[in-house]
From TrEMBL:
<keyword id="KW-0547">Nucleotide-binding</keyword>
<dbReference type="InterPro" id="IPR003439">
    <property type="entry name" value="ABC_transporter-like_ATP-bd"/>
</dbReference>
<dbReference type="Pfam" id="PF00005">
    <property type="entry name" value="ABC_tran"/>
</dbReference>
<keyword id="KW-0067">ATP-binding</keyword>
<dbReference type="InterPro" id="IPR003593">
    <property type="entry name" value="AAA+_ATPase"/>
</dbReference>
<dbReference type="GO" id="GO:0016887">
    <property type="term" value="F:ATP hydrolysis activity"/>
</dbReference>
<comment type="similarity">
    <text>Belongs to the ABC transporter superfamily.</text>
</comment>
<protein>
    <submittedName>
        <fullName>ABC transporter, ATP-binding protein</fullName>
    </submittedName>
</protein>
<dbReference type="GO" id="GO:0005524">
    <property type="term" value="F:ATP binding"/>
</dbReference>
<dbReference type="InterPro" id="IPR027417">
    <property type="entry name" value="P-loop_NTPase"/>
</dbReference>
<feature type="domain" description="ABC transporter">
    <location>
        <begin position="5"/>
        <end position="224"/>
    </location>
</feature>
<keyword id="KW-0813">Transport</keyword>
Length: 296
């Protein structure tokens, strides 16, 4: 698969503090890559290096095999907070960045749901309105690569949903996204790859499909006797954990489901409810970080 962005062995220090330590990852064309990790691990720094705002101490960033952001046809970005002029209206702001393409501005205003306030001065905007304006600027002129740092900041649930759907639609049409967010539940709904940073290192760079395969996979059972159910299954080499309302059975570290149901039927334990559950992105990230912490 063609890569729009390749980061190779990039390191960055500020004084004696190493922010990025020999990090490498790739962003395939048309993908939505989540750049995640605890606060202060270098997410914004690598985004600024990619955009040429900071220079790296070593390593390289390549866009379509070129050494500059000019190698990508167009790059849209929102880093930290929108760079907007408070004395201009939202429309005037967008006109500046669109090189006065009023048709492009009209389309992005409609897509972002900004019609009701786009002609008011930005100084009177709420945090969410300003955030939408910044995202709209990033998406103007149909960029090939879009880099978004905390795009969901200040957005209400409906706006989050609309932004997610827009990003998914644009990605289907070939736009590539690198998105950083601490709202992992929202990020998980749209990304197909994840890059996890910790202490300036890439500790995980993988597809979401593979990450889910590595995560815990289990059944949640509600039975006529949860206590007896848990004891029987544990005695038969099932990995179980009893909660106040259910019995959780690991499907990764246990015998077959046929054995499970046969055991319960034989002992006349009735299954009232069963759910197939899997660890989410947050659980998977915490597991990786805890493992990394144990290895340091």
């Amino acid at each position: 698969m063609e890569n729009v962005l390749t980061v190779k062995h990039v390191s960055k220090r500020f004084g004696r503090h190493t922010v990025l330590n020999d990090i490498s990852f790739q962003v395939p064309k048309g993908s939505i890559v989540g750049l995640i990790g605890p606060n202060g691990v270098g997410k914004s720094t690598i985004m600024k290096i990619i955009l040429g705002i900071y220079a790296s101490d070593s390593g390289e960033v390549r866009f379509n095999d070129a050494h500059s952001a000019k190698g990508a046809k167009r790059v849209g970005e929102l880093i930290e907070s929108p760079a907007i002029y408070p004395f201009l209206t939202g429309r005037e702001q967008l006109m500046l960045y669109s090189h006065k393409d009023s048709n492009d501005v009209r389309k992005i205003v409609e897509v972002m749901g900004m019609t009701d306030y786009v002609d008011k001065p930005v100084a009177h905007y709420s945090l969410g309105m300003k955030q939408k304006t910044g995202i709209a600027i990033a998406l103007l002129q149909h960029p090939e690569l879009v880099i978004l740092d905390e795009p969901m900041n200040g957005l209400d649930p409906m706006s989050n949903r609309d932004l997610r759907n827009l990003i998914l639609k644009l990605a289907e049409n070939g736009t590539t996204f690198l998105v950083s967010s601490h709202i992992l539940s929202e990020l998980e709904k749209m990304i197909d790859q994840v890059v996890l940073l910790d202490h300036g290192n890439v500790v995980l760079a993988d597809s979401m499909i593979h990450l889910h395969e590595l995560g815990a996979n289990y059944l949640s059972l509600m039975t006529s006797s949860n206590d007896q159910c848990a004891k029987l299954l544990a005695a038969n080499r099932f990995c179980v954990a009893e909660t106040s309302m259910s019995v959780r059975v690991s499907l990764t570290e246990s015998p077959s489901l046929n054995d499970l149901f046969n055991i319960l039927l034989t002992h006349h334990i009735q299954i009232n409810d069963v759910q197939h559950l899997q660890t989410d992105l947050e659980d998977s990230v915490l597991t990786v970080l805890e493992h990394q912490g144990g290895n340091r």
